[in-house]
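RETRY 2/3 - previous attempt timed out on the joint model. Re-submitting the same 972-residue input unchanged.
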Amino acid sequence: MSKDRLDIPDYNTLFSEHRFVEQRLNKQQFEAPCSEQETAEALAYSQSAEYMEKNFNRKAVVINPHKACQPLGSIMAALGFEKTLPFVHGSQGCNSYFRSHLSRHFKEPTPAVSSSMTEDAAVFGGMSNLIDGLENSIALYKPEMVALCTTCMAEVIGDDLSSFIGNARQKGVISEDFPVAFCNTPSFVGSHITGYDSMLKGILSYLYERSGLQAAPGSGEETGEKLNVMLGFEPYTGNFAEIRKILDAFDTKYTLLGDHSGNYDSPATGEYEYYYGGTKLADVPLAANALGTLSLQKYTLKKTQDFISETWKQQVSALSTPLGIAGTDKLLEAISELTGLPIPASLLEERGRVVDALTDSHPYLHGKRVALVGDPDLLIGLIGFCMEVGMEPVHIVCSNGDVDFNEVKFKEEAEALLASSPYGSEATVYVGNDLWHMRSLLLTDPVDLAIGSSHLKFAAKDANVPLIRVGFPIFDRHHMHRYPILGYQGALNLLSQIVNTVLDELDRNNSGFNYDLVR
Amino acid sequence: MDPIRKDEFDSEACGSKAPKSKPCPRPKPGEAAGGCSFDGAQITLLPIMDAAHLVHGPIACAGNSWESRGTLSSGPSLSQYGFATDLNDSDIIFGGEKKLKESIDYIAGRFAPPAIFVYSTCVTALIGEDMDAVCKEAGDRLGIPVIPVNSPGFVGSKNLGNRLAGDALLQYVIGTGEPEPELPPGVNLIGEYNIAGEMWDIEKLMNSAGIAVTSRITGDARYKEITWAHRAKVNMVVCSRALLGLAKEMESRYGIPYFEGSFYGAKETTYSLRQMAYLMNDRDMERRVDRLTEREESRLTQDLRPYRKILKGKRAVLYTGGVKSWSVISALKELGVQVVGVGTNKSTEDDVRRIADRVGDDTEYIPEGGATRILKTVRERKADIMIAGGRNMYVAMKEQIPFIDINQERHKAYAGYEGLLRLAKELTYSLANPIWKLASSPAPWDKEVPYDR
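RETRY 2/3 succeeded.
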């Protein structure tokens, strides 16, 4: 078929053709009457240190934000439970954004519904929307649980979820025993990680309280044998598989509290179902009797961790995303401590192999200056990993970094971590800043590599820095989320991504004497 | 067959200047609904590339939407910046007007845009921000237009937002400027957003026939050109659901005749070009259009031959909204593809009538969303391919249905004669890709008959 194929370019190449370039030049008469020189001057100014100062003095406007809002995280948490339908109470557009956002990252459908509140609901409250919505969505999507969260609108008018759900039961729209977990997730507070935490806590506490099991703690069959594990707002489905592999190597029993990897990595079998995998609802009350809980995103999971330690009276080991060798070592120690099991030999062997890989690559990474953007727990992991292989974090921007864990702020921990190594001495941690700030940083104090989500690509391009896509969201590359970044295997994946980018850059920029075959 | 939906409140075209009591259809609670009015207003105006677009509200409305639409620019990129006032809880209690004013000042000072569009959101509407006053004051002080777009998410659907954006253009933009005297009389393209560069293809065709574009509303537009849209001789409404009201109002205010047309498919393209020349009342132009369309159509017939052979008799389910619901049917028919199911939930009455004119009795109308409903149609009607937008794409993949993205995220331009050729190519490639055979056959050891190549 390739022989008789007509070559019709798509827009990536088509509009570079002469006729279109000409058309474009013609249009400049309508643009703001600036000469090319003025434009060039303005551009140069925007790259200057003087502009950077003005940029950092900016208080009012956010330019190119790097955070999403609470309900988005809450949908992800809801999809971590078996046959659970995420339900967003508010006006309809929010839900449509969340579905697009998550689907574009995972390249999978996102089942989630909205109560589609409109003006009348703004005046009279959203109760009838919520009740109609529950009735319709349960009939349409046949969930076994609904996980309800709010948007700004429902929060501003002060809708009372608990009483609305009660009224829905009274009206017979849902039966008395149909589970509806809920949480409040106003978007004007926190970010997607706060929403994830609220919903996870909402679901755990709700299922626990209605189970009746709390009356007789320790009476569950599985008492004291299982470990609870929470990954948090986890954009990598591969990380779930990796953590399972590690736990299986320990030969411990465990319950993942919130596992959306089924929903976001389902097979193409020819028949789409709305729900795949997820934590079994019946496992939640039993989790109250577990050996302990391991949390892999301590800043994200603040409320949930508190709930577990206070209500379930369990030991909670809270880490940040375990990236790199040291990060994974901490993870294994935590599992070993919680379960009393020794660290398995197979993992030690894997560790050795990855350490070997790191030594192979270190000459190309040593002293590379790096800019980092991401969520707090991811950044702690990335900073550790970078310093481990001799890379130097320079600019670290965390839009939603104004969080603390046990009264230590993210910024303090990041700075302490950086201070622990000579490779961290050049770094500055910016909390609450956006990607336009990052652009100034990249332009005035250049780095070799940028690590962050797809959103960073514009600033990276302006500064002519290669971008290594890590985190959420990754819209413009395929399948990154299928490869784990945590654990030893994850360290290897991160390493290959980073070192091969460095080598690609070497080859791209050196066509002469050092364009050689063996590196 | 399902009856075509007859909602009482949907009997007026949404884009028309219908009385307030007959708004766009209300969304139904408990469904996976589409975008809100804020979304609709923003996507209508975002293609004004040199303007700044500031979202007044909590971070999410901007954070979730910036840089997510494939509307291309031939030059300025200010419209692609995500500007937001990022209101937090204390702003909601004490009001965000000061922050808004400072944000406008910052953008005007640092980016020097020809205009700033300021969008309200659910939150700012609910707490009663006086956006109009802040914008007016800032505009007067800064000497640039600062345009409030009052379209908070909760007022309704995306379509209503499109219409409210049209109202903002009428109220604040159109009629405020004058073109250079040497600009020839021309056509406004209304409701064409330059997705994947389609506007450029259309413009090239119009240029070949000597038809000038007066204003692009709004694909790859510059703010200035929209200010003189009232000097056009003809309005072409490319997406009727969105901005028909704008054309109607311009007809009554400025006496500019309008027509609804499309550039999907050769016939529709030819019709649209002819209609422009006819309404321009220019004999020479009509003759030029005739020559151009004849030449292009016969060339297209040649080029399409290999694809028509493959596509003939193939069955498609089309799930999209607005103008594409009927115009893509025409395009597909020209390629020999039969449309066996078509979505109607975002179509006006007129759109539905046009759909009915174009499809046979065997076609199923899909009045509302939800993956199940679409998939059921695909299965029952034995469709070969599904043509829809991004949110349905991954469902199609799960069901191993060949799929073509027709909505805003796509990277292919399907307008005009070349666009039809591109569509034919995409359809052929999608249908012919070996992955479908692989995906739909079981693993070799699961087959009853031994694996045989």
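Chain B has a mean pLDDT of 86. Closing ticket.
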